[in-house]
Amino acid sequence: MGAGALVSGDVEDMRVSNVSISSVTFAADLSGALFWEEQRLLVVSDLHLEKGSSFAMRGVLLPPYDTIATLGRLAAVISRHDPRIVIALGDSFHDRTAHGRLSAQDRDAVAALQAGRDWIWISGNHDPALPRDLGGTVADEVAIGPITFRHEPTGAGGEIAGHLHPKARVSTRGRSMERRCFACDGERAVMPAFGAYAGGLSIRDVAFAKIFPKNGFVAHLLGDRRVHAIAASRCS
Amino acid sequence: MPPRIRKIPAEPAALLPDHFKAWFAARGWSPRAHQLALLEKAREDRSALLIAPTGAGKTLAGFLPTLVELSSAPAVSTKSVVSTGRTLQRTGGLHTLYISPLKALAVDIARNLERPVAEMGLPIKIETRTGDTPTSRRQRQRRYPPDILLTTPEQLALLLSSDDAPFLFSSLKRIVLDELHALVTSKRGDLLSLGLARLWRLAPQMRAIGLSATVAEPESLARFLVPQPGGKEAAADIVLAGGAAPPLVEMMDTRERLPWAGHSARHALPEIYELIKANKTTLVFVNTRSQAEMLFQNLWSMNDDNLAIALHHGSLDVAQRRKVEDAMSAGKLRGVVCTSSLDLGVDWGDVDLVVNIGAPKGSSRLMQRIGRANHRLDEASRAVLVPANRFEVLECRVAIDAIAENAQDTPPLRIGALDVLAQHVLGCACGEPFFSDELYDEVRTAAPYADLTRQDFDDVVDFVASGGYALKTYERFARIKQDKEGRWRVANPKVRQSYRMNVGTIVEDDMLKVRLVRSRGGGQGKAGGSTGVIARGGRLLGEIEEAFIEGLSPGDTFVFSGEVVRYETLVEDQVYVSRANDKDPKVPSYMGGKFPLSTYLAERVRRLLDDGRAWGALPEQVRDWLSLQKDVSRVPAVRELLVESFPRANKHYIVCYPFEGRLAHQTLGMLLTRRLERARARPLGFVANEYAIAVWALGDMSLMIRDGRIDLDALFDPDMLGDDLEAWLAESALMKRTFRNCAIISGLIARRHTGEEKSRRQVLFSTDLVYDVLRKHQADHVLLRAARADAATGLLDLRRLSDMLTRIQGRITHRELDRVSPLAVPVMLEIGRESVYGEAGDELLAEAADELVKEAMG
Questions:
Q1: Which residues 807-846 of chain B have a CB within 8 Å of chain A?
Q2: How many helices (H) and strands (E) does chain B have?
Q3: Which positions ≥6 away from B634 have C-beta within 8 Å?
Q4: Is-contact A7 A20, C-beta < 8 A?
Q5: CB B661: neighbour CB atoms within 10 A?
Q6: In this complex, do B749 and A169 lie within 8 Å of one another by their Cβ atoms?
Q7: Neighbour tally for B604: CB within 10 Å
Q8: Do B587 and A62 touch (CB under 8 A)?
């Protein structure tokens, strides 16, 4: 099936579609998370917590509920998969001081999610210096088996990254829709942003061409009820 | 006090000074009764609403009181500033403000006004102020105001938000509001009403003159012009200009077969061409930009006589539009194909025929369009209506009857929008600090806000200050703050600057520039993006909605700027297209007109259908069509809802005929499919036009209706506007667009930042995401309330849907048929042409994914 080494999605469970990266099979979750069953490892990227208050500081008073919303969705996907390890793949906080603006309630919610499992904060360009008091460990990148987890994609084989916030648009006969998506070509993947206010970058942007050498990758779009695998060349 | 309606003033001659009489006489004119009536109103110190058809000398009438007053003022310059100890007081100063919906109109009126002023040698200084006025002149105008200032609602808001507003406006005697009927139907009208409220406080002596075309409820429009006293209603006096000859309107009786569906009126092209040829100058109105494009292209392809025919619509490059307008004024054009872009604006005396293609939509709208022909009162305007399909024949027929009765269907006065109020509150804080109590009282003097509750007002102030969130975390980021006495003022100068840059209520669709380049060949399949190699630059053709381009794949053809073009690629905000040789575009882009069929005309269409005796006035083809419908199914009665069900090509259809306009039908279609899904009818899609809705499904809906699994009364029960609507609104793209507009107008997000205009591509967050989050966490937030109020009358037309559902309760008639009925054919033909499957959703993605599978297997 072309360059995208796509294993057909599990028909029974519509919420996930299987994605293979360097021979490891991940479940691409409708929420935008990746789950590695063997390792019971869950990855989410670009949470951008406190983006709302970051804008508010500059006079754009976005509703201050984005952190609650993002953590709520994260709690749902964690309870669905009950992972042993959670990796937050960078840009977990929207700016360098964002963690300091977390409400006590949100702080407790993070702690509750971390309880009973390993938690790794990968640092990103928005949050390069995370403090120790957030729980979990902070790292620049993590390698597990053939897979390397880092924030900014380099194009290396076996890499799972975030940073770009991929989204794809599909058009048919004058109608179109645009969704967040995973971008993968069997060797590497770029994850969609998980944060409630995180925007997106079209997978047709030149940034993706640099990562996926032959441009032959598949976009796994997050639909309303299931994940759809569509060739990137079919998207705009 | 009830408005006093009067046609003729008591002593006409005494009202006009001698040099004015001489001026009228020198031009061979005599002052019209309504012009004198306005002078009399001015003398009585009353505000007045002048209702007059185009060509009645409305503008001169509006300015006459000002000119007379200023001409009798002492000739020596007394425009000086006098210190009275604590404050500055002035004699002279700004006397009259003129507000127009179009800046071009303001400029044009200023030019026209200069003539009598110069010819009578009046010592009057007239200036305009628009977005194009240089900063230096604007500053001077604030310090040394002219006698008469012509401007727009947005510029008025800006002036009012400045520190020297009290100085500038305290001398104001009169405000003239032009094209008031057009202004008050939108949020611009809300903004203007709030500006008026402010002016009444700054200049209590100010009186208003409203100039309007004929409207359905002049009394309610007259309320707009005077401060509303709490609890009661007050209105300006109404002056009616009589004497316009009734227009001569006919429907084109085509020699050709009338199409069942479509909007192109292609069948009537030769006849339209003949009309242009037979008249001096013809304005050809269509409802959408793409119709204009199509028609223009088709007319040129048959233009053997090389008639000067031009194209005019809002998306064309401004320079190109000006060229057309200039050629028009110079009498060089035989025909102009145009959209509502020419509904208002500069008068051209020489238009002798108006042709209206397609549905008239509303009788007042049509009358105003027809008024564009022959701007001389005593001569009848002439118009020909060209229905593009059979249903439109019915609509044209009832519109002609409505015009003969002079029946108006303009919408009622708006209820002031909360997002506009938020913008105004911020504007007020930018000027003099305000007390909530005082501003609340002031705002309610504006007619659209007369019933504003204190709770709504306080919520809006809270929103402007710190976002209005239940979660109080933004106090430290507040944009306006209270001082010790309780006055609200802007927190910092940046807030003021941002307000100034974003004032206004017109939120444009996101537009992309269209450039014509050479095709790079092939195109198809090799998707665009940034990878394509294409010659940059290219001639600028105009602008197109981003939403339309998003639905195209490279290689798709569509009509733009009068020709069929091929979509090549999109780079940033530039769409590159090449010339296509196709005769027919692959992607039709009707997208419907901006306005739905008016409730009034819809009612008349239903009455016409129900009254078999009235069918005699219809063309034979249409009569036959309706008779056949009567034989095989049923013609819907006035108050009932006819529902037909039938099988066709392995699918099962229901078609119903509410006649409530496309917007309400689309909303109904979304909700019906949800309910049918729940009834396990397995609906696949629906399509809606102005008159009917067709839903198709895999389940045998005829059978399901028969055995009670589908209960039609329950299916159309108004309770669908409860939970079903809620569930749909959560994901509706139309609702998200509505919310985005409110977010922009209210100032939650800025369109423009200092120094640059941000395109949506650069906006760092999406209002859709903000909508999702806010809806979930604070569903009663003031912005969501504002968006809901818009949805009631705007893109979702909920109020109309709700009225219809109530009307038809217990009056649903079902006909089970073995095949499609004659009445159903038009809407069935829309399938595939203007297909809407609810919101694009998983189905669309699944379809694209299937293609991938086919590609792989094939």
A1: 835-837, 840-842, 844-846
A2: 33, 30
A3: B642, B813, B815
A4: yes
A5: 27
A6: no
A7: 22
A8: no
Residues 215-234 on A with a CB inside 8 Å of B are: 215, 221, 223-226, 228-231, 233-234
Interchain proximity B845–A223, CB inside 8 Å? yes
Which DSSP letter does residue B327 get?
A: H
Query: Tokens in use for B377?
Result: 């009162």
Residue B778 falls in which region: left (phi positive, over 0), alpha (psi -120 to 50) or beta: beta
A11 touches chain B (CB under 8 A): no
Both structure tokens of B802: 């709700």
Residue with tokens 């669905």: A80
Tokens for B794?
């705007």
Question: Residues 543-562, chain B: which have Cβ within 8 Å of A?
Answer: 550-554
Residues of chain A contacting residue B848, judged by C-beta atoms under 8 Å apart: 170, 172, 228, 230, 234
Burial of B662 (0-12, 13-18, 19+ CB in 10 A): buried
* Nearest-angstrom CA–CA distance, B584 and B591: 17
- Give pLDDT tens digits for B570-628: 777 788 999 887 766 666 554 555 678 899 999 999 999 999 999 999 999 999 999 99
The span from the CA of A86 to the CA of B558, in Å, is 49
For residue A105, count CB atoms less than 10 angstroms from its CB and return exposed for 0-12, middle for 13-18, buried for 19 or more: exposed
Residue from the list A56, A103, A234 with its beta carbon closest to the beta carbon of B852: A234
Question: Are B748 and A60 in contact (CB < 8 Å)?
Answer: yes
Mean pLDDT over each residue of chain B, to the nearest integer:
85
Q: What pLDDT score does A141 carry?
A: 96
Rounded Cα distance between B490 and B482, Å, is: 9
The C-alpha atoms of residue B348 and residue B376 are separated, in whole angstroms, by 10
Using the beta-carbon criterion (under 8 Å), do A197 and B498 form an inter-chain contact? no
Which of the two residues, B666 and B589, has the higher pLDDT score?
Answer: B666
Q: Is the Cβ–Cβ distance between B682 and B855 less than 8 Å?
A: no
Instruction: Report the percent of chain B where pLDDT is more than 70.
Output: 86
pTM exceeds 0.90: no
Predicted confidence band of residue B757 (pLDDT cuts 50, 70, 90): very low
Which neighbouring-strand residues pair with A195?
Answer: none
Q: Do A61 and B778 touch (CB under 8 A)?
A: no
Complex ipTM: 0.90
Please list the residues that pair with B489 across neighbouring strands: B481
Q: Which residues of B touch A53 (CB under 8 A)?
A: 473-474
Instruction: Give the model confidence (pLDDT) of B314-323 as tens digits.
Output: 777 778 888 8
**Dihedral sign from CA coordinates of B764, B767, B768, B769:** positive
Q: What tens digit of pLDDT does each residue of B475-532 get?
A: 999 999 999 999 999 999 999 999 999 999 887 777 788 898 887 654 443 333 434 4
A42 pairs with which residues across the strands? A35, A86
Q: What is the pLDDT of residue B764?
A: 59
User: What residues of chain A lie within 8 A of the CB of B495, using their CB?
Assistant: 59
* B139 CB-near residues (< 8 Å, 6+ apart): none
- The interface residues of chain B toward chain A in range 43-82, judged by CB-CB distance below 8 A, are none
pLDDT for the residue B53: 77
Nearest chain A Cα distance for residue B841, angstroms: 7
3-state secondary structure of B851: helix
Cα separation, B563 vs B129, in Å, equals: 38
Structure tokens at B71: 């001409």
For the beta carbon of residue A138, count every other beta carbon within 10 angstroms.
Answer: 17
Least confident piece of the model among A147-151, B193-197, B390-394:
B390-394
Around Cβ B722, how many Cβ atoms within 10 Å?
Answer: 10
Is residue B782 within 8 angstroms of chain A, CB to CB? Answer: no
Which of B554, B769, B851 is nearest residue A196 as measured by Cβ atoms?
B769
CATH of domain A3-234: 3.60.21
